[in-house]
Input
Amino acid sequence: MVEEPIAFHRAALFLEEGARSLNEKPVPLTRFDRTELNRILTIYGRMVAAGEWRDYAIDFSQEAAVFSIFRRTSEMALFKVEKRPRLRLKQGQYAVIAAGGLVLKRGPELAQVLRVFDKKLLKALGG
Output
């Protein structure tokens, strides 16, 4: 007799979408799409190659998706790249935030916002 694993497809689907239990309706989460994540990881990879950054974390919630960048795993995040769709029509849905909470750049396009790291990358590669 072959034992097959029990598949909980319905439960996995609900929990993946943010529901706390099977009785609750799923809560939509804000996420980075593939192209956004590719842009962020390209810059992250360059800074890792330069020896400036060493770790990252990605968080998803109802109101924001956050890509946190760390110099070391045990430290606070050096920078956070946030996506907040509710600010899309106001200030722009993307922002780069420094460790102290200072917003370095905010705008409607991710590529424009990520240009804040160009100077840091040139400094890391040059010196």
